[in-house]
Amino acid sequence: MARLLQAPLKFHPSEWDVANKMQSASTESQKSRSERVTAESRRLLDEIEKTTQKTQSDVNKKIEQRQEEIKFWKQELDNKLEQIFHETELLLTFKTRLEKSLESCKEPLDVAQKCLLNRQRRAGIDLVHDEVEQELMKEVEVLQGVIALLERTLEQTNEQIRLNRSAKYNLEMDLKDKFTALMIDDYCASLTNNTPDIRHADHTVQIEGNFVSPEDWTDFSNVNVEKAEKQRNNSLALRTLIDGILSQTASDMHQQCEAVNVAFRNRVKEVRDAKRQLEGLLVMVMDETASQEKNIEALKKAIADKEGHVKVAQTRLEARNHRPNVELCYDTVQYRLTSEVQQITKNIERQDTLAQAETELKGLSRRQLSLEEEIRVKENTLYIDEVLCMQMRESVHINNF
């Protein structure tokens, strides 16, 4: 208890003085350090403020630059989209021209084939492989070749339209993304430190795997533009080709159609001339037949006229053969009667011209039948070529679509 009540340790005045000095020195040192920290903090804050302001200003400039880049590529894509759209519309009109031209080939081909079929109905010697048939077969070949060419060109056109639309789709998707990116960057450019809806989002600083490099970004749009330009150029070249094909095929078809028509006109003239010649021969044969019939009648009459003389002479001889006994004399009368009968008989027998005339009459009759049949053949040919074929071909019109 006594120890607990022991007086506290007393310090020496010098110690007290030292302690006070130490407190003063320590406080001054602490103050100095604090002032340095405060000054450093102010400097640091000022530096951070300047850096932050500079960084934010730089970011703002980068956003502006990015906006300009997006606007540039957006304009490029817009221009190319308009071009490819316009080119596709033009190519669609050329496709329509091809389809109309292809459709217009069906009637001439059908007419040419019907003409060939009709001309198989020609008869006799007129069923000939003439110039008309050659030109018709050539026309069928030309038309079939034109149809095949137009079908191939139409397929090529459809494929080019598909490629144009594919390029157009890529441009539209790229433009859509550019529009969205520009809206986002416009929003970012509008943000300030005092914007109400700014917030912390620490996870956004992480770079995910779907980010692309600026070079890839530029290349992507550049490739879309180049592809669209390539397809536009291909489409232009195809339109030029289609123009040439339509012009050339129309010229070929028109030329061959005219060649067939000329061949038909020439053939009709030839057949008509031949028919006219046959009709002239028929008239001549009929005249000759009439003349020969008169000749035969004259020959028959001449023969008939001699029958009386023969009968008289033969009757006289028959009567004088009944003279009795010595009266049955070969006298002058008997001699002359016998000579008369022989002479008349001989003259009648010499008139074999009648048989020849009858033979010639039969020949003329056969010739008449042959000529009449040949004229009917020519009439049939004229009907087929002039009425069936040429009138049918009047409906054929070769248009340049």
TrEMBL record:
Transmembrane parts of this sequence: none
Q: What is its main location?
A: cytoplasm
Query: Which Pfam families does this entry report, sorted A to Z?
Result: Tektin
State the compartments where it is located.
Answer: Cytoplasm, Cytoskeleton, Cilium axoneme; Cytoplasm, Cytoskeleton, Flagellum axoneme
InterPro entries according to UniProt: Tektin-like, Tektins
The Basic and acidic residues compositionally biased stretches are: 30-42
According to the record, the residues making up region (Disordered) are: 16-42
Alphabetically ordered keywords of this record: Cell projection, Cilium, Coiled coil, Cytoplasm, Cytoskeleton, Flagellum
One annotated Gene Ontology cellular component of this protein: microtubule cytoskeleton
Q: Does the record bear Ion transport in its keywords?
A: no
Keyword Ligase listed: no
Q: Which residues form a coiled coil?
A: 354-381
> What is one process in the GO biological process aspect for this record?
cilium movement involved in cell motility
Role according to the record: Microtubule inner protein (MIP) part of the dynein-decorated doublet microtubules (DMTs) in cilia and flagellar axoneme. Forms filamentous polymers in the walls of ciliary and flagellar microtubules.
The entry assigns this protein to a family as follows: Belongs to the tektin family.
How this chain assembles, per its entry, is: Microtubule inner protein component of sperm flagellar doublet microtubules.
State what protein this is by name: Tektin
Its taxonomic placement starts with: Eukaryota, Metazoa, Chordata, Craniata, Vertebrata
